[in-house]
Predict the structure.
Amino acid sequence: MHKKFTYIVYQIIMAILAVISIGMLIAYYAKRINIDAYPYNMIDNGIWLAFFTDYVIRLIISPNKREFVKDNIFDLLSIIPASSLFFLFRIGQIGRTFQMLKLMRIMRLVGWVSSLSEMSCSTTCTLRLLS
C-alpha cells in the first residue's frame, strides 16, 4: 500500500513538472516570458534537473539498459536542453502526462475500492472481537 502511494505521488509530481515545463516553453515561444532570465531560468533548470535525475535513476535500476533506453526514448529526448530543434521532443511529455493522469484516475478508483474493503474487514474484525 505504501509503495503504491509513493508511486502515485511520484507520478503526480512528474506530471506537474511536465505541465509547468511545457507551459513555460509555450509562454517563451509566445514571447510572454524570457526563459533565459531570472526566475524562469531557475525554474526551468530545476525542472530539467528533476527530469534528468529521474531518467538516470530509472536507467541505473533498470535490469535491461538497452530496452529501457528504447522504451523511454521520448524521456531521453525531453531532457536534452531546450532549443527550437528539440522543442517537439519536450512536447512529447504531454502524452506521458496524459497517461499519468489516466493512471492516477484508475489508481484512485482502485485505492478507493481497496480502502472500502479494508474498512469493511476492520469493521467486521472489530465486531467479532467485541462479541
